[in-house]
Input
Amino acid sequence: MPDTLESLLWCAALATWLMLFFGIIGERLKPVSKLLSHLLEVAFRLRAK
Output
């Protein structure tokens, strides 16, 4: 039973760190995503003319 509990706690800790990591990465990539969408919008607007 103690081994199972320890494994469960390790999995919970790993899941917590992964959620924090991907949350931070997602926040950092938002400006890049906005820039790319803006550049695509400009490129297609130029082609339409």
About this structure: The CA atoms of residues 7 and 13 lie 10 Å apart. The chain has one helix and no strands.
